[in-house]
Amino acid sequence: MADKKKFNYGGQAVIEGVMIRGRSSVVTAIRRPGGDIAVISKPAPSINKSRARRIPFVRGVVVLIESLLLGINSLMSSANIALEEEKEEISNKAIWGMVASGAVLVVAVFFIAPLFLAKLLNSLLPNSLAFMVVEGIIRLIIFIAYLKIIGFMPDIKRVFTYHGAEHKTVNAYEAGVPMEPESVKNYSRAHIRCGTSFLFLVLVVAIVVFSIVGRQALWLMVLYRIVLIPVIMGIGYEIIYFGARHTGNWFMKIILAPGLWLQSLTTGEPDNSQLEVAIAAMNKAVENDQAEEAAIPAA
Fold first, then answer.
1. Helix (H, G, I), strand (E, B), or coil: what is residue 276?
2. In a domain, 106, yes or no
3. Between vectors from CA 14 to CA 63 and to CA 46, what angle results, nearest 5°?
């Protein structure tokens, strides 16, 4: 039987913890208020093995939806564990309400607002291409400013350090070193498959896609900025997907370099206790995958 294609582990930071997505499970490790580590392991969603996940340009949207759902679930778990001392609990309804309002805000701030700001300069712009480039630059400035501002918030800053722990752990695992804090801490906080890099590429791809559409009536341009988001994300994912498999390619290094630099804004330097949490999540995810493979009868 042919060897299985190498699985790329990945995840995200949550409140006082890290989520790692494996082939067979999704593992969230959280530091409890008392100091011990809670490890929650759940089966990976069936979409993880679906055909749609292998179709170019479609898989980017599928992965995004999957990551959003898994991330929300892990955030709810981590938030409720982190609130154990206060005897409080965040309801699913409250979380989904925040997600829905957040999605509307993201579209409004990062896609609609730059359009209206560029419109103010319309008389100074000679053609459609110039308009789209200026709109894109405004969008990128807003994105970078947003990352910089939220990085000053103490709670977000701590989540960013767990984000750094997640990246270091994935990098160390892929390098094949022992999963111990002293080994893991030497690895980079940047990772080519990070969501920060993906979002940056989405904003750059948006310039190209909207340039192809061109200047239209204002209401139509607003509509395009909403309905074309899945298309833009699908293209952005393919660039990340290709780049992750061609890390030595000089052209891809140039394309991906800004996204890797931006990760300095969304990752902090973790301490050993945070690395322990990320390592616990990674070890359990790998353990679950190894157990599943061992249970499959040889052909």
1. helix
2. yes
3. 35
Mean of the per-residue pLDDT values for the chain?
Answer: 86
Mean pLDDT lowest among 48-57, 88-97, 119-128, 193-202: 88-97
Q: Is residue 1 in some structural domain?
A: no
Residue 34, domain member (yes or no): yes
- Residue at token pair 């030497």: 186
Contact 160, 168 (CB under 8 A): no
Show the domain range for 275: 10-295
Both tokens of 221, joined, read: 């341009």
Assign 3 a pLDDT band (cuts: 50, 70, 90).
very low
| Dihedral sign of CA atoms 153, 155, 158, 163 in order | negative
Question: Which ranges in the chain belong to alpha helices (H)?
Answer: 59-82, 92-107, 113-119, 128-150, 154-175, 181-184, 195-213, 218-227, 229-245, 250-266, 272-295
Taking CB atoms within 8 Å and a gap of at least 24, the contacts of 61-70 are 61/230, 61/233, 61/234, 61/237, 63/237, 64/233, 64/237, 67/12, 67/21, 67/195, 68/99, 69/45, 70/19, 70/21, 70/26, 70/45
Question: Is residue 224 a part of any domain in this protein?
Answer: yes
**Structure confidence by residue, pLDDT tens digits, 19-44:** 999 988 999 999 988 889 999 998 88
For residues 247 and 180, give the distance between their C-alpha atoms in angstroms, rounded to a whole number.
Answer: 26
- This prediction's pTM: 0.86
| DSSP 8-state assignment for residue 24 | S
pLDDT tens, 202-249?
Answer: 999 999 999 998 888 999 999 999 999 999 989 988 898 888 888 888
AA letter at 198: F
What value, to the nearest 5°, has the Cα angle with vertex 73 and ends 184 and 190? 30
Average pLDDT over residues 240-262: 87
User: How many domains does the structure of the chain reveal?
Assistant: 1
